Input
Amino acid sequence: MVSVATRSADPKGVQGTPPIDAVSLAIIEQLQEDGRRPYAAIGKAVGLSEAAVRQRVQKLQDQGVMQIVAVTDPLTVGFRRQAMVGINVDGDLDPVADALTAMDEVEYVVVTAGSFDLLIEIVCEDDDHLLATINKRIRTLPGVRSTESFVYLKLRKQTYTWGTR
Output
């Protein structure tokens, strides 16, 4: 599967990002349906030329609004264990979040409000890899007070069509 992941679109430009117009949102929606859709087909659907679509897609990528990636099923490429890990931190969150971001096993790092300071998703080869990642790498980071792991038993839904409204 090829997918388009968008970052918070912030259509009104509230958080300092430039506003995204309706045509760019329509382009994103087209790519979320099929990340390999030809620019000519997208142009026809949104009322632009192929070249104009190409330029807009490049601009959206350059601005960090979206990226076009191949999304795999971890089980089919040798990763047998996924987990969400809630982390509580003493002191400044940034150094811990930065260290987690640098780990290959960590797919998402989210600063949260609530029971945990950070939530991360990790993908590992097996249970031993999961244990080593949590016990030897995450729990030993300076500032990490506690972790709680939520091991995935079965993935029922995974979609990347959010982000346009």
